[in-house]
Amino acid sequence: MARFPEWFHRLGAPKTFYSMTGKWLPWLAGAAAILLCVGTVWGLGFAPQDAKQGNSFRIIYIHVPAAFLALAGYYVMAVAGAVGLIWKMKLAHMVLKAAAPLGAALTFVALFTGALWGKPTWGTYWVWDARITSMLVLFFLYLGVIALHYAYSSTEAASKASAVLALVGTANIPIIYKSVDWWYTLHQPATIKLTQAPSMHPDMFKPLLVMIAGFYCFYALVLLMGTRTEILHRERRTRWVADLAKTGY
Amino acid sequence: MAAVSPERSAFSAIVIRDLTLAFRHRGEIANPLIFFVMVATLIPLGVTPEARQLAEIAPGIIWVMALLATLLSTETLFLSDFRDGSLEQMALSSESLWVLVLAKILVHWLISGLPLTLLSPLLGVMLSLPAEGFLTMVASLALGTAALSLIGAIGAALTVAIPRGGLLLSLIVMPLYMPVLIFGASAVQQAVDGMAVGGALAVLGALLAFSLLISPFAAAGALRVSLHG
Prior knowledge:
The complex is a heterodimer of chains A (249) and B (229).
Chain A: H1 6-12, H2 14-46, H3 60-86, H4 90-122, H5 130-151, H6 155-187, H7 202-234, H8 239-247
Chain B: H1 10-24, H2 26-46, H3 51-74, H4 79-83, H5 86-92, H6 97-126, H7 134-159, H8 166-192, H9 198-228
Helix pairs in contact in B: 1-6, 2-3, 2-6, 3-6, 3-7, 3-8, 6-7, 6-9, 7-8, 7-9, 8-9
């Protein structure tokens, strides 16, 4: 088995991770706040209107970053699960626990904003389009992992079981996406076409990039905060957490 | 049962044992089948008894019902062995656990998927499935239910230690079932429409091969989690 550098092992210790990430939080929070504020104001206030969709297209500044991270979040969760199973790293299981509800929430945001966008654009909140359907399945996959985690009373069994499920889901995601795509080409309704986004004007695209960067910072921030809470919860009987509780932060 | 002779492999030993157990509880085999037929009766009552409209939805409906019936029987896959401790003994034995899991999945298909497949022409008649669809329906269900049994085994292994885990099992397994449903129902629909079905059936076969590759290992790993936490 490959040997890891020392920092990897040190970071894997919940206590080190806790004190190290504590220093990152303000920076991440600041970056997320600035990027999200700039991106929102720029995107909603200053980016040009879309020729066909008018102002309603501006919801992409929320929708696209959320959809990006919804999918990336599943892989974060699965990689954490794999690390936890293979190297028996407790910290990775805590990351998985924190990543699952966060990813599910972002998937929901993507679905919800997509529905809101659909109403003015295609006159309906919901269509059984390939991408929307895949996103819904992704949401179900997240819910399965969360439900399984909560069903176990033992934390250790819960961690391992949801890690296995996350990995099985990862193996299946490409298959599910491809088969939903194929299914959609069979049943493609003639009226609505949303598979190909038109190439965007740079003035519209730049705020989107800022928003995506902001969402990534926000995701990292919330993931770290969730993991830190989970660390405190699972290590609540250790001395360093007791000391932390006495001295404050 | 006669003493297990040493040359008999663990795989066939489990197959014979589980088949024997299944035939001593025939009711459990029959229940999903009865469910299958009863739900088929609900469709004309709830939607329409008109043959032409039924024929339109029959391929999808039959596949959805087969999926749900398989799901119903999946919960019991490891449950009794888990409760009486046999599963613990299997995990401790010198045989690889995935071999034993594969044997259990095979028996599960023989007593759930295969009877469903054989019963499906009856449902085709009840739901006025056009004659061109029957052969493809049987072929797609034979391949598809085997894949469903394999995928379901992972969920069953993950939830076996959870009290009343049946509903949870459905929640975690159903998203994974979707590709099988898509290609199974499409194959039947294409046969009804007079198109070539080879492609969809080939993909079903590929899904079966893929689940055959990963499912025994994932299910064996999940069982170890369920057994030892």
